[in-house]
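Thread: "does anyone have the structure for this chain?"

Original post by V.I.:
We have the sequence but no experimental structure in hand. Need at least a predicted one for the grant figures.
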Amino acid sequence: MKQLDFDTLVKCVKWSKQDHYVGEMTKVILNGCSDNFLLIPDVDYYEAMQSLEARQLEEERLLSTARRNNEGMEHEKSGRIDDAIAVYEENIKVGYPASHSYERLMILYRKRKEYAQEIRVILRAIEVFSSAGATDLLVKFNDRLEKATELLNHQKQ
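Reply from O.Q.:
Generated one for you, tokens below.
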């Protein structure tokens, strides 16, 4: 017998006890009590499990991003800028829409006058935050892209 908490069941499954269904059913135990259960269609159960797994993966992406951000900040405080950059770069590869790593990399590369690297990070940020619908950040990143491009062109002259 499968176990699933009631809140997850309510959020993920579109089926109610009153519906009549003929087909494969999954017995879902509620609140850890085998006398308290629902039978739901397998298709709805598997849909709920996929939704739950996707949410758990997204939460793990968030937690991993936050851990790396904290690690990067510690490296910066200790003066280990190369280590901080490496950690922040890991975050932008993951592409979770949390701005800290992108912003810190932009600043660190600007301080080093590595404008091509800054532009690469800005373009990645625009890609990630466009997908997330964060229009306020996109304006900021586009402004920064314009300035970084000017600095790179000036540097090449």
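V.I.: this helps a lot. The longest strand covers residues 33-41.
O.Q.: and Residues 11-18 have pLDDT under 50 and may be disordered.
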